[in-house]
Amino acid sequence: MDLVVDANVLFSALIKEGFSHNLFFNENLHLFTPEYIFTELEKHKKELLNKTEKAEEITPDPDDMAYFALALKLNCAIWSNDKKLKPQDKVEVYNTHELDKIIKNS
């Protein structure tokens, strides 16, 4: 399955082992992300380094449009835990638990 990965999923996978971390390395997923992710990582570098147990949800800024642009170009869904991305009908958005169920059922 092809998916565009949102920064909050990547942050979650980096911070804590769990659903996001395990799915991130699933061989059935082909993950893409816009180059902008490096800016996001740098912006939250201290916060990411300071977290050791529990990941906090990071509120995306208007630059999330890059994820939608890439998903539209690749004609694929977005993997994001940001609930604000769901209420639209152009690109399917799966959260980590939804994606886990899809992978287990395929």
List the helices and strands and how they pair.
Blueprint: E1 2-5, H1 7-15, H2 19-24, E2 30-32, H3 37-43, H4 45-50, H5 65-74, E3 77-79, E4 93-94, H6 96-105
Parallel strand pairs: 1-2, 1-3, 3-4
Brief write-up:
The protein is α/β, with parallel strands linked by helices. The protein is built from 6 helices and 4 strands, in the order βααβαααββα.
3D structure, described in words:
Residues 54-61 have low confidence and may be disordered. It contains six helices and four strands; from the N terminus they run βααβαααββα. It is globular. A four-stranded parallel sheet has the order 2-1-3-4. The protein has 106 residues and is of the alpha/beta class. The protein has one domain. The termini are close together. 45% of the residues lie in helices and 11% in strands.
Run of helices and strands:
EHHEHHHEEH
Beta strand %: 5-15%
The tally of helices reads 6
Largest sheet composition: 4 strands, parallel
Radius of gyration over C-alpha positions, nearest whole angstrom: 13 Å
Q: Could you say how many structural domains there are in total?
A: 1
Classify the secondary structure makeup into a structural class: alpha/beta
Strands, count: 4
Task: Please tell me the overall pLDDT.
Answer: 78
**Termini, distance in Å?**
10 Å
Question: Could you name the ranges where pLDDT drops below 50 across 5 or more consecutive residues?
Answer: 54-61
Strand order of the largest sheet: 2-1-3-4
Please tell me what the overall shape is.
globular
Assign a percent range to the helix content: 40-55%
